[in-house]
Amino acid sequence: MKKLLILLCFIGIVIGPLGAQNYTDREIIRIEKSQEVLEGLLEMNLDLLMEKDGNIYVVASPNDLIALNAKNIQYEIESHKFYPREQGVFTIQSGVNGDFHSYPELERDLMALADAYPDIAQVIDIGDSLEQRNIYALRISDNVGQQENKASVIFLGCHHAREWISVEVPYLLGKYLVENYGTDAEVKRLVANCDIWIIPLVNPDGLEYSIHFYRYWRKNMRNNLNGTYGVDLNRNYDYKWGLDNLGSSPNSTSEVYRGQNPFSEPEIQGVRDLFVQKNFQALVSYHSFSQVILYPWGYTKEASDKEDILFEIGDKMSQVMEPVNGRYYAAERAGAGFYFTNGDTTDWSFGVYGIPSYTIELPPNSSIKGEFFNAESDIQPIFNENLPAALYLIDWCIQTYPSQSQYSPFHIRRQQGKSLRIK
Ligand code: 0X9
Ligand code: ZN
Q1: DSSP string across 370-393
Q2: Which ligand is nearest to the Cα of residue 341, counting in written order?
Q3: SS3 of 129, please?
Q4: Least distant ligand from the CA of 258
Q5: Which end of the chain is more exposed for a tag (fewer CB within 10 A), N or C?
Q6: Cβ(341) – ligand 1 distance below 6 Å
Q7: Does residue 339 line the site of ligand 1, with CB under 6 A?
Q8: Ligand 1 contact, 160 CB (< 6 A)
Q9: What pLDDT does 410 receive?
Q10: What is d(CA 333, CA 331) in angstroms, rounded to the nearest whole number?
Q11: What is the pLDDT of residue 162?
């Protein structure tokens, strides 16, 4: 069963891009639900997105709109074209993304956390996306404004636009840490002894496109100048980049297009530049779906020389997660699975910096119609089960590297970079 799911996921990756290129004329529409409307809708073979609060959201093509008009079914167009920031049309809107964050909603909520807890939280802009959105890091540490010698760890979310749950888990981790710092002795200890960096949304342009235009969008919004859009941000890192055409594609129509050069994409240049300035000791990159904990290598089926410790930490995370909701996340070597990746985040952070690095693929591990989507009601349970794993990894960093000045035996090289802007 699991192999079948992985196969379906893989097929989705391979055929996705061809389909995705033709979806730019789609509109997200909202239809008020009634028995009469429902009967009309069900015979139309529409791309139903979500049902919420008596409304049905649909990914509609121009032909779908014509058919709805013919049936006299009323609808509201929810999506709007993307406007660059210079035109000043960023709005904080609730819409089809429901309880999941859009870019402006995340911006608002991160700023609110930093405002509410200025002693332990900062929002830092690590760089801009292609469409000039900010890539935000929430930095959590006591004496957050000061440089201190302490362990440090990084959590990343949403390299892939359609994986909305992967924004929520790191965001809620940050929220949990700052809100419980004052009352929970264990949280206080972790925040006192570790410099925790959380980047919940690496791909803001893609997320907005996924919300407003095409729910299944995966890549960033790079105009490839040949009629295709998007680079897979999880294939653009500079470690074994473009090694072969199995783990990424040189073809821009592909959903796993690696880009023209390693680090060609500004979204992950921001991540790279942050690594130049920080000495992280562990990394988690959240994705969805399939409910597994993956560790390097992804580019080969061979084990690294740190296989034992990588499995041990991953398996420990799995063990502390399962009791929360009964969901089991297997810890596995990424490349030992069904497909390879080259130029992905974790091979880079492990290969270049030598730090324990994990891709946590969030639930579900089964799907109806191959969907990635998580129910809004599952956001909190998924976060709850991921929390102990994150806390464990933070503690692992503290125990293993009590002071940042203590040289990491994993550490291979650092580069020079630009400075960060603090909000
Ligand atoms: O393909 C990816 O980039 C990730 N999976 S996803 O379904 N979220 O797109 C991570 C894949 C992990 N690496 C390997 N399987 N080699
Ligand atoms: Zn992903």
Answers
A1: T--PPPGGGHHHHHHHHHHHHHHH
A2: 1
A3: coil
A4: 1
A5: N
A6: yes
A7: yes
A8: yes
A9: 41
A10: 7
A11: 86
| Ligand 1 atom with least separation from CA of 299 | 16
Report the alpha-carbon distance of residue 243 to residue 254 in Å, rounded.
16
Q: Where in the chain is the domain with CATH 3.40.630.10?
A: 103-422
Q: How far apart are CA 216 and CA 267, in angstroms?
A: 19
Q: Report the C-alpha gap between 151 and 223 in whole angstroms.
A: 39
Q: Taking the chain, what is the end-to-end CA distance rounded to the nearest angstrom?
A: 47
Q: Kindly list the catalytic residues.
A: 361
Coil, strand, or helix at residue 15? Answer: helix
> What is the CA(363)–ligand 1 centre distance, in A?
14
Fold topology of 2-80:
Alpha-Beta Plaits (3.30.70)
Q: Is 386's pLDDT higher than 70? A: yes
Predicted pLDDT at 287 = 95
Residue 115 clears pLDDT 70, i.e. is over it? yes
Instruction: Give me 203's structure tokens.
Output: 């791909």
Query: Which of 286, 292, 361 best tests ligand 1's pocket when mutated (most atoms within 8 Å of CB)?
Result: 361
Interacting residues of 266 by C-beta distance below 8 A, sequence separation 6+: 127, 128, 129, 130
Probe residue for ligand 1, chosen from 3, 285, 302, 341 as the CB with the greatest number of ligand atoms within 8 Å: 341
Provide the pLDDT confidence category of residue 134 given band limits of 50, 70 and 90: very high
- 249 in ligand 1 pocket by Cβ < 6 Å? no
Residues of the chain with CATH 3.30.70: 2-80
Q: Nearest ligand, CA of residue 357?
A: 1
pTM here is 0.81
Side-chain half-sphere of 31: how many Cα atoms within 13 Å?
A: 29
- The candidate with the shortest Cα–Cα distance to 281, out of 402, 125, 137, is 402
pLDDT in tens, 295-333: 999 999 999 999 999 999 999 999 999 999 999 999 999
Which atom in ligand 1 lies closest to the alpha carbon of residue 294?
A: 12
**Most informative mutation of 202, 234, 237, 338 for ligand 1 (most atoms within 8 A of CB):** 234
% helix, strand, coil for the chain, step of 5: 35, 15, 45
Choice between 122 and 97, residue whose per-residue pLDDT is larger? 122
* pLDDT-derived band at 66, boundaries 50, 70, 90: very high
Q: Which CATH superfamily is domain 103-422 in?
A: Zn peptidases (3.40.630.10)
Distance (angstroms) between ligand 2 centre and the Cα of 34 equals 36
CA distance 60 to 262: 36
Ligand 1 centre from 341 Cα, in Å? 7
